What does this fold into?
Amino acid sequence: MQTISEKVVGRLSRYRTLLTEQKDGERTHLFSHEIAAAMRLSDSQVRRDLMTIGTRGLPSRGYEIQGLLLDLDQALNQTRVHGVAVVGAGNMGRALIANLESTRTNLRIKCAFDADKSKCNRVYSGVKCHPMDALETVVAQEGITLAILCVPAASAQALAERLVHAGVKGVLNFSSQALRLPRTIALEEIDIGNYLAKLAYFTIHPSKERRNGRHEDR
Amino acid sequence: MQTISEKVVGRLSRYRTLLTEQKDGERTHLFSHEIAAAMRLSDSQVRRDLMTIGTRGLPSRGYEIQGLLLDLDQALNQTRVHGVAVVGAGNMGRALIANLESTRTNLRIKCAFDADKSKCNRVYSGVKCHPMDALETVVAQEGITLAILCVPAASAQALAERLVHAGVKGVLNFSSQALRLPRTIALEEIDIGNYLAKLAYFTIHPSKERRNGRHEDR
It folds into this structure.
């Protein structure tokens, strides 16, 4: 299957979250307009997205939840397990360690790192915290492919470069420092201050756009 | 000035972050291509965005940093102060309380709420944590307009509705539960699991798109 665009992958991943929530419920099928309403997308957007992975609903019953989940898992390679490192074991890092794994079956948080020696060798929610100078060794040993950066802005770029050099292929950056990494490295950056600034703006100037909430184009 | 689109507001807010970092540096001016490179945007995108707020650079020197910051502050209403409530004072909530305010001068985290009685009446980084049943009273008293939801998925929707009822105009949702709120309410949702799922996908299927990292369309 050819590479799907970033926007579509983002939405497919969200459909998967929704369907996972529904899969043990009473319904066996969902219509595209129901998926669309839950996601604040248009009906036709949902159908187009699911066509890209070769799935069609039945006009009379919609999409079969279990079958669609299997298709989504395959398209998104959810069957392949990724080792994840959390870099920075402050409150944010520890919140991610505690909460993330339950929602994603193919992500395994295998290690954490922190510059604070008092955190090193402690275990947070089952995940051991290592000193920063063990980063290269542990990332290689554990076969880490994804890293979540929860460190102060000033140290983010240097740590990201070390992670990439150690073999990490994707970085999720929570620091407010925008990173410069090779284009071959997948990179997502979440600047929470920017999200709030947008919210603040739209409390004063109501958006005229149809969408609101989870982004259609994410 | 007319309402700016959500995508443009997102980018303007990011330009503002970049320029704030630069404003005490040696440079007084920045060229659009320099802003573009730092943001992984195209040159023409940056110029178009800044034209929407009526700012043009000089061909010979680019944009004057201080002047552009003032224009951005005005366009984004950064001079208007917003009272922010953090709902859920677990690790994530406390991380936001500790780190957010320093980066955004017009956002004031004024209160936190938690269902855990042992957290109530404690003060985290200068912010008092109240019991959930005081939510309506404190939100009204403090004139809160924005709320950040850091609660488990199961309680997110009910709490969001209470916040809106109490007068909150914008919600930033960190729970994995997609919210349904009136369209008049500004809503941003950050499902961290989805970001990681996208990263995982693009470590296997390298993106053919030019962009990587901070989204041009955010």
Summary: Chain A has eight helices and nine strands. The first helix of chain A runs from residue 6 to 22.
